[in-house]
Amino acid sequence: MRHFKGPRHSWEWREGMNPDWRKRRFLFLRFARVMGTAFLLFLIGMAGLAYLFTRLMNGGGQVTLVVWLAGCGLAVAFPLLAVVIGIRSFASFANPLARLMMAADAVAGGDFSVRVPEIGPGEFKRLASSFNRMAAELERSSQLRRNLMADVAHELRTPLHIMQGNLEGILDGVYQASPVQVDLLLDQTRQLTRLVEDLRTLSLAEAGQLSLKQEQVNVEELINDVLTSFSGQAEVAGIVLKIEAQSAPEELLVIGDAGRLDQVLNNLVANALRHTHLGGKIILRAVRQTDRVHIQVVDNGSGIAPEDLPYIFDRYWSSRKSSDPSRSEIGSGLGLAIARQLVQAHGGQVKVESQPGQGTTFTLDLPAAK
């Protein structure tokens, strides 16, 4: 992040860049023009008052001259004092304005890291604060765009290479264009579709532009739907999947988008299934606590090492220090990153507790419906 320094007459970059004196000269010329005009008008006014005063006092030309000279002396003394005060006042607003103009030029050139000190008179301080907020938001938006492009390149590379390799193999006669090969290619296209949709969801959520259909959602019905969706998969894997609703259904109400909350729970349950072994169990819980509703996905799987917990919601993060060598990734892909963003979009938080070899608990903390 770059800052401008600006004590007194310095408009230099903090890194030592050459100052842009044109902005200072422009501001000073405008100031000098106003002050010069005011000084001339003051002299004319003093001459007029001197003439009027001598006429009223029936004075002659000599008296008029003395009064006029005295008036001119005062006219010179007071403006000089006013100029000194004016220059100091000029510096108090011209320096912040010049820094702001230079920073605006930098932002227009694509450098969103610039900031200006929030000093000076109240109006300029508020203006500097607004400018810094604008620059910070532009920098954040630029970073989000860069992240999205990096995500696209990272995630689309593998399925595209697989599709390209298989298609080239079919053209070269290495593979037969059999239903098996067609199904493999179709699976890769489905994966690409999911990745594109996940990237879009994550990008919109991080930018605060994800539209949510706000309605009253019954959490008990929500977790029952999730149980129905995953019961077959859990049965095949030899894992017990059940619900423990610890509060009355009428207390388990939240305001939010039922489809997005269902997406969050699907991600968490799918993640639990991947890391729970044969004979394990996954429990869905829901409980009302004052003005909050807590939804938990609890498993007794392999767990997560304490040093890995701070990173599991990061996109594409994979653990190289997993306590379980049978699994190579924790929270890989976008599922957990999307879950966190969607919960935050509902005004809630998602927390995780885990012990290696004992299991993991994800907790969604959501505002209850009033």
As for the number of domains, it is 3
Shape: elongated
Measured by DSSP, the beta-strand proportion falls in 5-15%
User: For the largest beta sheet, what order do the strands appear in spatially?
Assistant: 4-6-7-9-8
Instruction: Report the oligomer.
Output: single chain
In the CATH scheme, the class of the largest domain would be Alpha Beta
For the sheet with most strands, the description reads: 5 strands, mixed
Order of helices and strands: EHHEHHEHEEHEEHEE
Beta-strand segment tally: 9
Q: Give the name of the CATH superfamily of the largest domain.
A: Histidine kinase-like ATPase, C-terminal domain
Rg from Cα: 35 Å
- Architecture per CATH nomenclature, i.e. the level-2 architecture of the largest domain: 2-Layer Sandwich
Unreliable runs: 5-19, 319-332
How much helix, percentage-wise, in residues? 55-70%
CATH topology of the largest domain: Heat Shock Protein 90
- Put simply, the count of helices is 7
Keywords for this entry:
370 residues; alpha/beta; Heat Shock Protein 90; 3 domains; 5-stranded mixed beta sheet; two-stranded parallel ribbon; 56% helix
Word description of this protein:
The chain has helices spanning 21-56, 61-108, 122-172, 179-206, 219-236, 258-274, 335-345, and strands at residues 2-3, 114-115, 215-218, 240-245, 253-256, 281-289, 292-299, 349-355, 359-367. With 370 residues, the protein is of the alpha/beta class. The protein folds into three domains: 2-117, no CATH class; 156-206; 215-367, Heat Shock Protein 90, CATH 3.30.565. The strands form three sheets. A five-stranded mixed sheet has the order 4-6-7-9-8. A two-stranded parallel ribbon has the order 1-2. The chain has a two-stranded antiparallel ribbon with strand order 3-5. Helix 6 (258-274) packs antiparallel against helix 7 (335-345). The chain starts with a strand and ends with a strand. The model is unreliable at 5-19 and 319-332 (pLDDT under 50).
